[in-house]
Design goal:
Rossmann fold, about 240 residues, 8-stranded mixed sheet, alpha/beta, globular
Length: about 240
């Protein structure tokens, strides 16, 4: 049940058709695992906390650096040198003290990912490298829970909703990891994509509208347009293909 303060705090989203108090209660009781407290993780986690998502696990083993601050708005100059997950917990608690935030300071590996995700209802991919994204992808299949993928480069971003076996998985879309590099990024780009990730999470938990399944949303900030492309399963995919089961 919602408290009086919660009913008032979330009153504007409760008014949304199909949302209501029942939807808000679903958010309050849900557990979400956010992989990465960087640019994508910043905007995504902040809007999930503001929306009243009751339990947020945020995982990052890196510490904040000065070069992060153009986009990673969970942090600030006073947080330089502090673990990003710990910094995220401090910031998110200030946004909404009623949300339970678990800061996980571990590096995500194939051995620990299922333990870290635990009984989360959904995984949010806010990482900056594909090897770790692929680990999340496998966990999504093993746990039979969705994965919201977001990625950015410069002024461009990508978004999709993975729900194996209903949709293609990340390996179907990206069979191999791109070369490792320090890539360019304008802070507003992960701001846009991270907000969209938060929206996909909220819609899924509440049961509102349609998630972006089987489609890859492409944001072009330079020319300010959105486009999308249909994505398909790869029958030979090593994760979700016929021979993988």
């Amino acid at each position: 049940m919602l408290t009086k303060n919660e009913s008032e705090r979330y009153s504007r989203q409760i008014l949304i058709d199909g949302f209501g108090k029942k939807g808000q209660e679903k958010l309050k009781n849900a557990i979400v695992f956010i992989a990465g407290a960087g640019g994508l993780g910043s905007s995504c986690s902040m809007y999930l906390a503001a929306a009243g998502l009751g339990n947020i696990k945020i995982c990052d083993n890196d510490s904040t650096e000065l070069s992060n601050l153009n986009r990673q708005i969970l942090h600030g100059e006073s947080k330089i040198g502090i673990n990003k997950a710990v910094s995220a917990k401090i910031t998110l608690a200030k946004i909404n003290q009623d949300v339970n935030i678990e800061a996980i300071e571990e590096k995500i590996t194939e051995k620990n990912i299922c333990r870290l995700v635990g009984n989360s209802k959904i995984i949010v991919d806010c990482m900056d490298n594909f090897p770790t994204r692929f680990i999340l992808n496998k966990c999504s299949k093993m746990k039979k829970i969705p994965l919201v993928h977001g990625s950015v480069y410069g002024l461009e971003g990508r978004l999709t909703f993975v729900k194996i076996p209903e949709t293609p998985c990340l390996k179907c879309i990206f069979p191999t990891s791109p070369p490792k590099e320090i890539f360019p990024v304008l802070g507003a780009t992960p701001g846009v994509i991270g907000c969209l990730q938060a929206m996909e999470v909220i819609k899924y938990i509440v049961g509102l509208g349609e998630n972006i399944k089987g489609r890859l949303l492409i944001f072009d900030g330079k020319n300010m347009n959105f486009s999308e492309m249909q994505i398909f399963k790869n029958p030979k995919c090593s994760v979700c293909g016929k021979k993988s089961n």
